[in-house]
Specification:
4-stranded parallel β-sheet; Rossmann fold; 11 strands; 2 domains; binds 6-O-phosphono-beta-D-fructofuranose
Length: about 325
């Protein structure tokens, strides 16, 4: 069903991710191409509640495709979780005569949009923008590719010094409850061990793996740890390993917010451009309260409910690859 949309609002919310700017650019330019006016909301839902809403023209999104962060700024809004906050946001959108919204963010962002849609009649279309790659309904989220490349490059540098000193390094990456960043970074960096939330490898098993390496004269090693894994953070795990097996001189690097910044990779820019285009197209075609993603290289629309609640699984071969190659 074609929908008559004259004005849309776009915003970014939750943790920033490289490629969000490219997505904003794509939304603005696709909308303008289709004679739709665009308004940018600053700092996500907080800005919607405060009425920080400004008209965006094509020139406002020039020279941003290569920039990390988000030109619209972002926030994790506590106020939007309240009925009063959502009511104020709705009133502001109505004042600007907004017909539909494009929300760029992750789990929290879409949870907010879903709550809003239960009471109010302004349709939302979500674009998955998070480094975590933890959303069902898209093969990849915007920012993931850049983040894993940043983390992998950091791990490569650590490898040099780990090798020179025969040291064991524990490298902690983000991902919240998802091991995507850890698994991809670990495979890409040739890690000797990878601990992620989706796997039940404990410290004893990790030590056994490391011992096998030592038997084969492997005198340095990198272990990539996802922040949400069951054994704790990198510092804690390093301590536990040391208690069981004191052979290695161990060091810890927490990559932290380094992996959230920086210029987006080409893959993220292309993904963001396609999804920004797909979001506007979806709204014009009457899609509502769905996330646009890419599945098997085609645009796909998934309900917010499924995007948030269904679990995105790994291809099985990834676990095998990680375990066989990282000896
Ligand atoms: O969701 C993105 C993310 O970077 C997670 O990987 C991480 O757990 C969290 O955000 C960190 O949040 P903050 O920037 O608020 O510390």
């Amino acid at each position: 069903m074609k929908k008559n949309i004259n004005k849309i609002a776009v915003f970014t919310s939750g943790g920033d991710a490289p490629g969000m700017n490219a997505a904003i650019r794509a939304v603005v330019r696709t909308a303008i191409y289709n004679d739709i006016q665009v308004y940018g909301v600053e700092r996500g839902y907080d800005g919607m509640i405060k009425g920080d809403i400004k008209r965006l023209e094509s020139r406002h999104v020039g020279n941003i495709i290569h920039r990390g962060g988000t030109m619209l700024r972002t926030a994790r809004s506590e106020e939007f979780k309240t009925e009063e906050g959502r009511k104020r946001a709705y009133e502001n959108l109505k004042n600007f005569e907004i017909d539909a919204c494009v929300a760029i963010g992750g789990n929290g962002t879409f949870t907010g949009a879903k709550l809003f849609s239960e009471t109010y009649d302004i349709p939302f279309l979500g674009i998955p923008g998070t480094i975590d790659n933890d959303l069902y309904g898209t093969d990849f989220t915007i920012g993931f590719d850049t983040a894993i490349n940043t983390a992998m490059e950091a791990a490569d540098r650590i490898r040099d010094t780990a090798d020179s000193h025969d040291r064991l390094f524990f490298i902690e990456v983000m991902g919240r409850a998802s091991g995507y960043i850890g698994l991809f970074t670990g495979i890409g960096a040739g890690a000797g061990g990878i601990l992620i939330p989706e796997d039940d490898m404990d410290v004893e098993q990790l030590v056994e793996k490391l011992k096998k390496g030592v038997k084969r004269k492997k005198l340095f090693s990198l272990v990539v740890i996802s922040e949400g894994n069951m054994n704790g953070g990198a510092y804690e795990i390093a301590e536990k390993v040391k208690e069981i097996y004191s052979f290695f001189d161990t060091k810890v690097t927490v990559i932290g917010h380094l992996q959230r910044g920086g210029s987006p990779s080409c893959a993220d820019r292309v993904l963001a451009s396609r999804l920004g285009y797909g979001a506007v197209l979806g709204l014009m075609n009457g899609e509502s309260n769905k996330m646009v993603g890419i599945i098997d290289n085609e645009l796909a629309y998934t309900s917010f409910d499924d995007a948030i609640n269904k679990t995105k699984t790994f291809s099985k071969d990834l676990f095998a690859v990680a375990s066989i190659l990282g000896l």
